[in-house]
């Protein structure tokens, strides 16, 4: 065994590193005039590539092409140009190591004191509707991230600049005589954030391309499954989008974070007016917009504490809103309202009625007249928040997954946002629901999936009449929903988010005059429940699909 000689720094540690030679390779050339002027004024030797070289030369900067450094031409349509030892050794050499400096001297390699690089705009390319996989793959940068990572790793001696926003700080350092270690450390941290986000965007796109994300073309071995397999790893780069006054309670600090580059769902919401949104507002907005999005016809949803206290669909959004607000007027006070069509003047006029107050109104768009009315007429005009929520798949940026935090980890699942198909449902009782109840059953089973389990929804037509939510026994949820519905239960329909474990609920349902029941089925006591429904003459439909929401 031969012991390796100790590699000890034998030159003094360096704080300020003068910038005498820099490598510049830019996809985003914004601010290049400012950068060029600063480099030229500081007398920095500049090595560059392709289009960047031409752009700098046009600004009067004397540029050495990277091919003169490598002694090798750009090949493979520019795929290989900087990937060469004469480049990377110049970036990675440690200035306090005599052996590193001897290697550079032996091979005629000059050090780079700084690297100014930004990466191909992969995220912008894949956002184009006509983007082909080949286009996206060609914009996966190889040399750029390698240069950035090399310089960031060696930040003790090499500065790395990855954004035009950093040019002013970098150029100021040049005029002072060089970058400090603290500055290089900060640049390196930003550089690793930059490459991490870049790789995360590519990983999410590649997961879709490989069929690992719901909605993508499935892989052959996963074709038989309802969902493609979950990815083994999900990399998310989150940015703080909206600082919040506090969390669920005033003693908890909070903010809205979203994946970089995503502007769909609440991550892309635009607040038109009103007070700042709170943590609880955003939770309620999520519940409201997701339920409204499940309803196909013009619809309105009224949310309180993440559960609907009113919901309706109708021929117009205004009619649906009027019905939803009337379902539980007491709970509707101070609620969150969401509609799935443009919020128009007729909708605004409904909310001008005396005694009404809502915290937030969400819609895909607002008519100008509606905004004017709501911000000038009611007594709460300065308080109401109007929020435009863009349409589109908000799960694209999270590999098709929704996440919930638990202590020390995240739970991930495919969102339960796919509409049910009533054509697959099965009538299990002797009596069949009348044809005029088909739409009501579909509506009720859509509503119940967004209630907190154990959940029961009682609907009259396409309007929620009463909800039983979050109870530890299903029969208690049934009792509460029927009490809320009152007289509206008679002739209505009842939906359950999961099976009835016992037939005890059927007695309550029969006494209330419910005309039909829809539930997933799947209990070992299904025969007893069906027998009780037959005895009461109540039609019952099994959907074979559960919709728990904890």
Number of helices: 19
Mean pLDDT: 85
CATH homology superfamily of the largest domain: Methylglyoxal synthase-like domain
Largest sheet descriptor: 6 strands, mixed
Shape by Cα distribution? elongated
Measured between the Cα atoms of the first and last residue, the distance is: 61 Å
Strand tally is 21
Helicity, as a percent range: 25-40%
Please tag this protein with its features:
3 domains; disordered N terminus; 17% strand; 35% helix; 550 residues; 6-stranded mixed sheet; Rossmann fold; alpha/beta; Cytidine Deaminase, domain 2; single chain
In short:
Helices cover 35% and strands 17% of the residues. With 550 residues, it is of the alpha/beta class. The protein has 3 domains: 188 residues, Rossmann fold, CATH 3.40.50.1380; 125 residues, Cytidine Deaminase, domain 2; 121 residues, Cytidine Deaminase, domain 2 (3-Layer(aba) Sandwich), CATH 3.40.140.20.
Describe the structure.
This protein is an alpha/beta fold and 550 residues long. It has three domains: 21-208, Methylglyoxal synthase-like domain (Rossmann fold), CATH 3.40.50.1380; 264-388, 3-Layer(aba) Sandwich (Cytidine Deaminase, domain 2), CATH 3.40.140.20; 422-542, Cytidine Deaminase, domain 2. Helix content is 35%, strand content 17%. Strands 8-13-12-11-9-10 form a six-stranded mixed sheet, with helices on both faces. Helix 1 (32-42) runs parallel beside helix 9 (167-176).
């Amino acid at each position: 065994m031969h012991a390796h000689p100790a590699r000890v720094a034998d030159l003094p540690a360096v704080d300020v590193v003068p910038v005498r030679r820099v490598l510049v390779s830019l996809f985003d050339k914004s601010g290049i005039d400012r950068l060029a002027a600063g480099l030229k004024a500081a007398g920095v030797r500049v090595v560059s590539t392709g289009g960047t070289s031409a752009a700098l030369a046009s600004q009067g900067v004397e540029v050495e092409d990277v091919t003169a450094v490598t002694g090798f031409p750009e090949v493979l349509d520019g795929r290989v140009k900087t990937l060469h030892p004469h480049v990377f050794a110049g970036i990675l050499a440690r200035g306090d190591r005599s052996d590193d400096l001897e290697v550079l001297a032996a091979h005629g390699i000059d050090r780079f004191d700084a690297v100014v690089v930004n990466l191909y705009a992969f995220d912008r390319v894949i956002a184009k509707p006509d983007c082909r996989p080949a286009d996206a793959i060609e914009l996966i940068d190889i040399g750029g991230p390698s240069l950035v990572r090399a310089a960031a790793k060696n930040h003790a001696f090499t500065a790395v600049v990855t954004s035009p926003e950093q040019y002013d700080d970098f150029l100021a350092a040049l005029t002072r005589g060089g970058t400090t270690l603290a500055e290089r450390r900060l640049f390196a941290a930003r550089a690793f954030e930059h490459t991490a986000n870049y790789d995360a965007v590519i990983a999410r796109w590649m997961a879709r391309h490989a069929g690992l994300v719901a909605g993508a073309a499935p892989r052959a071995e996963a074709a038989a499954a309802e969902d493609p397999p979950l990815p083994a790893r999900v990399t998310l780069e989150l940015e703080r989008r909206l600082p919040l006054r506090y969390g669920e309670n005033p003693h908890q600090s909070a903010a809205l974070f979203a994946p970089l580059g995503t502007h769909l769902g609440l991550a892309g919401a635009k607040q038109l007016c009103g007070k700042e949104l709170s943590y609880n507002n955003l939770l309620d907005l999520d519940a409201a917009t997701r339920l409204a999005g499940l309803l196909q016809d013009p619809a309105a949803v009224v949310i309180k504490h993440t559960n609907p206290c009113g919901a309706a669909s109708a021929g117009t959004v205004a009619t649906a809103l009027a019905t939803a607000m009337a379902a539980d007027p007491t709970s509707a006070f101070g609620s969150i309202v969401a509609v799935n069509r443009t919020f128009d003047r007729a909708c605004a006029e409904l909310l001008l009625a005396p005694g009404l107050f809502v915290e937030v109104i969400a819609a895909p768009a607002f008519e100008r007249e509606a905004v004017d009315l709501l911000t000038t007429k009611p007594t709460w005009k300065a308080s109401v928040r109007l929020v435009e929520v863009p349409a589109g798949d908000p799960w694209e940026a999270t590999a098709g997954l929704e996440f919930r935090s638990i202590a020390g980890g995240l739970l991930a699942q495919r969102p339960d946002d796919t509409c049910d198909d009533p054509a697959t449902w099965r009538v299990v009782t002797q009596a069949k629901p009348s044809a005029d109840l088909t739409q009501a059953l579909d509506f009720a089973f859509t509503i119940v999936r967004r209630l907190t389990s154990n959940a029961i929804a009682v609907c009259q037509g396409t309007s929620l009449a009463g909800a039983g939510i979050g109870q530890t026994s299903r029969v208690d949820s049934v009792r509460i929903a029927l009490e809320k519905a009152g007289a509206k239960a008679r002739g209505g329909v009842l939906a359950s988010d999961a099976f009835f474990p016992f037939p005890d609920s059927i007695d309550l349902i029969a006494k209330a005059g419910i005309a039909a029941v829809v539930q997933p089925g799947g209990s070992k006591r299904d025969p007893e429940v069906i027998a009780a429904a037959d005895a009461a003459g109540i039609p019952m439909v099994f959907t074979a699909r559960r919709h728990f929401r904890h």
